[in-house]
Design a protein that fits this description.
alpha+beta; four-stranded antiparallel sheet; binds zinc ion; Gyrase A, domain 2
Length: 164
């Protein structure tokens, strides 16, 4: 088994920001890194779930909606993935995400939280979600990071994945 690309990123040097984690087949995967992995508490599951509903709602109604392929949370709960088609760069995503966060922080309810529209409709926490959004917005404006530190991983066969 080959080490998959995202596991070659040194998560101990990853600051909150926006990163390009993959570019393939015309799709770009952006990592919206919200908390500092393994150093700060990850986003609580209920807050992350609300963030997914709100962020997906904004992106899928925005002026770039035709290019939005996927919006969803990272399993480690330290950020969100957004997959786009087209030629979007980190700075484009920073501006879009700031607009999105501005809208999110003005919301008083999470969309689609009935048993009919959500697979775990009780797992929501809007106040905590909005706290995370405000902190992330501040970071995107004042302490922005977008450059990965690559981790040197060498497998048994000597193959190196430092340059994934
Ligand atoms: Zn849901």
């Amino acid at each position: 088994m080959e080490v998959i690309q995202s596991f070659t990123i040194d998560h101990t040097h990853l600051k909150p920001g926006i990163y390009v984690s993959r570019e393939d087949k015309g799709f770009t995967t952006f990592d919206l890194r919200i908390t500092e992995p393994n150093k700060e508490p990850a986003v609580a599951p209920a807050a992350m779930h609300s963030m997914e509903h709100l962020m997906a709602t904004w992106f899928r109604n925005s002026r770039v909606k035709q290019d939005v392929v996927y919006v969803g949370p990272m399993g480690c709960l330290t950020g969100m993935y957004i997959i786009m088609t087209g030629t979007y760069r980190v700075e484009d995503m920073r501006q879009l995400t700031l607009e999105c966060l501005e809208w999110m922080t003005a919301q008083t309810a999470v969309p689609a939280t009935t048993p009919q529209t959500c697979g775990n409709h009780l797992l929501h926490d809007l106040p905590m979600c909005l706290w995370e959004c405000r902190r992330y917005m501040n970071r995107l404006q004042n302490d922005f990071h977008s450059e990965y530190t690559k981790l040197q991983i060498t497998l048994d066969d000597g193959k190196c994945f430092a340059d994934a």
